[in-house]
Each structure stands twice: as C-alpha cells, then as structure tokens.
Amino acid sequence: MNTLTLQDVSYKYDGTTRTIFKDVNLQFEAGKVYTIVGKSGAGKSTLLSLLSGLDTATSGSLTYNGENLATMNRSQYRAKKAGIIFQSLNLLPTATAIDNIILSMNISGVKGSRKNKKVMALELLEKVGISPEKANRKILKLSGGEQQRIGIARALAHNPELIVADEPTGSLDKDTEAKILKIFKSLAHNEGKCVIIVTHSKKVTTIADEILGLEKGVFKQLNKSHMPVDRETNKPASKQGTQVTTQKARRAAGKQPGR
Q1: In the chain, which end has fewer C-beta atoms inside a 10 angstrom radius, N or C?
Q2: Measured at the alpha carbon of residue 48, what is the angle toward residues 45 and 51, in degrees to the nearest 5?
Q3: CATH number of the structural domain spanning residue 214
C-alpha cells in the first residue's frame, strides 16, 4: 500500500526562478525504509518539508493514503500521522526529557493519565538509550547526542504511521547509531510503518529497502551494493541506478528504439 505519492511534483522557492525539482513522481510504501542521499543544497531537506506537510509543492500533487496534503489539515497530519525528526530537534531546553515526550503526546491527543504517559515516555526514552536518571534532566543539561535520541523518541510518542527524519544519527556514536538503525528497521519491517531518512551516512543506507539519490533536481534509484557515501564530499561514490520516473524521462523513453 502506498503511504505517500508524489505525482508530477515541482518546487521552486517563492520569488525566484530556481527550480529545485520538476515533474517528480515518487511512491513511498508502508513497511519499507527509504534513504535519500545527495550533495548539500540538492533539495533533500526541501523534499522532507513537503513530505512533512511543512511546505507545499509549486505544482503537482502529494497525497497521503489518497488524501491531498495541500488541502488537508497539515497540523493534524503532523500531530497524528507523521513523526518528524528535525535536524535542529526543536526540544524545549528548560523542560525535562520526559516532559518533552509527554507534551508531544498531549499535542497529538494520546489518551491516558499523566502517570501512564510518564511510563510510556520512560519506555520510549529507554528504547533509544536514555536512562531514567537522564530522562528527568532538563534538555540543556544533556549532550547533543542525548538530545538527538530524545528527538527520535519524541517523534515516536504518538505511534505515527510515517517517520520522516533529517540526519537522525548525525551526532551519535557508532554503537548508539546501530541501535537507532535497528529501531528504524523494526518500525518498518515489524510494525508496517513507512520510514524516510535523509542522510550522508553509508551505514544508514545499509538498512534501506530503497535508496534515492538526488542530483540537479533528478531523483535516481540507487543500487545499495554500489552506493558508498562519502561524508567529506556528500557525494555518492557511484552513480549507478535507475532514474525515478519524471515527465522528461517518460518522454525520452518513448523515443527510444524498440519502445
């Protein structure tokens, strides 16, 4: 089942003529992990903004389970359907880790008493490697890596069907990164969720069912076994892969001999 569908989607910044991507057609299915790679400034975060309902396409349509994001209540979509892991995290610095999770639950309309929500919050935090002692600390008293894990737990607080993450392991050590990747993989394969991750990390791409490369406004489906990612250049070391369908690609295919 398709969770998110982009049909002939184009995007350019307001007041400019610069087109970030044009006539893009993509499908993201439940039960799969997708990673999106590409150079800085290629438009990866712009795509996540569209998928998260934080922005709308210049043209074309983006639908979630058949409903157009441009016309639906996108605040409710983010609160109840999508779990978003921001690169900037946006945690409340003077609140504890537990209170940040409970606040997210309250906004999303999660049922239960504060006592029950506290238990659920502690379980989520422990799942991402935050101890009960640190769960009761204020965010500003925690390290960057710990804050990143809390941001991941907060995104899962309302049990969303869709998880959209922007560099979710960037501040994590190798052992913690491996644990978080195992969680993302389980969310997709065992719980049937759709997980979409923007990353520059080769290790993150190893859990992907599909890898999408973005370069000069064009999405390409990349072969995992030939897709090491260079953190220094942010450039895929291999350009092998099949371009995801666009209007231009369809027209070109129609001109090829034997088609």
Answers
A1: C
A2: 160
A3: 3.40.50.300
Amino acid at 83: G
Domain that holds residue 6: 2-255
| pTM of structure | 0.83
Residue 215 has pLDDT above 80, yes or no: yes
Beta strands in the chain (DSSP E): 2-12, 19-29, 33-38, 59-64, 67-68, 82-85, 162-166, 194-198, 210-215, 218-222, 229-230, 235-236, 241-243
Highest mean pLDDT pick, 9-23, 38-52, 60-74: 60-74
Q: Which long-range contacts (CB under 8 A, 24 or more apart) does 5-8 make?
A: 5/61, 5/62, 5/63, 6/50, 6/57, 6/60, 6/61, 6/62, 7/60, 7/61, 7/62, 7/63, 8/59, 8/60, 8/61, 8/247
3-state helix, strand, coil in the chain (%, to 5): 35, 25, 35
Strand partners, 210: 34
Number of structural domains, the chain?
1
Give residue-wise pLDDT tens across range 42-56. 889 899 999 999 999
